[in-house]
Structures are given as structure tokens and as C-alpha cells.
Amino acid sequence: MSFGAETAAALFCWQVRPGAVVTLVDAETLCWRARLTALAAAGGTAVPFQRLLRPLESPIALAIYQALPEKERFELILEKLTELGAARIVPMTTARSATVAERDAGQKKSHRWPEVVRRAAIQCRRAQLPELGPCLTLCEALQEAAADDVRLFLFEGEPVWTLHEALRDERPQRLALFIGPEGGFAPEEMAQARAAGVLPISLGPRILRTETAAIAACAALQFALGDLW
What fold characterizes domain 2-52? Predict the structure, then answer.
């Protein structure tokens, strides 16, 4: 199996070398486990040894906009959302969240985030690395997600939709989910999101920590839309 410069560039992002086992998608969109035999900027070759019966990537382009938590919890969120098939993960600053500068003041760790994503993607044999976006404000995140088919944000108050109610008549190709920090979104932020057409949803009666909410919501969405079963 040979491939060109575009696939080679993607493989360089994975930091793999000849001899590594990777997941490749051929021209007929079939997924294969294959061992790299050559890799250069212009392309490379690999020997396929296992055809995968199901696509490894989710059919839903799920973007998670996560308010930055403190300490190492964002690294946990990155790892688990990668395993669950999120297509894009974007850190976000809100009124009650930490900032990248505050998190890095004690010990700089934001430079490790791409490596956390890469290692998680390798562990769960993803065919594509999820995109790790730059840190945005809530306003910027709402603007970026404006064209997505469905936009949801987790909300602790009333009135809200359940996840099933929000997706009842929807089969989105692109979905954005906004997750707040400890303490939730500020009232003015909730009003801003509602004004932008984002639906408030709840995962149930219990208050979840932000990292638990991110993992549970991503898994629930992928299950509801058919990527997990």
C-alpha cells in the first residue's frame, strides 16, 4: 500500500517511524491496520495485515468546547475525549474558569496537551488525530460553532432539555457541545449562549464535576447518535 504527501504529513503529526503499526484508510474508505515500511515528505509505503470491519472514526464531527479546569483535570479530559472519538477539542475561558496563564504559572503544562492527545489516539487506534484548538473566549467559541448543525451547552438550572429531547428529530453531521467550569456558566454567559441559539441540556439530577460532565456527555452523545453501542 502506497500513499502520498498528504497522508505522510498526517503521519508525521503522529510522530511515527517505519516499523510502527498504524491505521490507514484506503481510496475506498476501508480501514486497515498496517505496518509502515517507508515514510518521507513525498509519501511512503505500508504493508496492510488486518482489515477493520467498521470505521474507527465517528460519523459525527463532534466539537467539545471545554472551560478550563484547574490542575491536571484538562489532561484527563483530553485523553478521554480522544478515546471517545471527539473530532475537535477546544479549551475555553469563561467567567468562572481558569486561564492558560493561571494554569501555567505554577508549572507550565499546556505544551504537553498535543502529546496527551497523540498518545491517547495511538492507544485507542484512532485513524485521525482530533484537532486541538487554541484557547478561546466563550464569545469566540460561539462564533466558531455558529455553522454547526446542533449546538448544546450543559446547564444546571431550569428549564432545560434532556439529551434525548434535544436530539429527537436531529441526525447532525456536525455537533458542538459547550461545557462550563466548576460552578457552571455565569448567568450572563447562559443568556449569551441562548441568544446565539445554543440549547441548554442536562445530563440528569446530579451535579457533576466538569471533567466527569465532559466524559459523560461525550459518551452519551456518541451513543445517542450511533457511534457507541
Answer: Ribosomal Protein L25; Chain P (2.40.240)
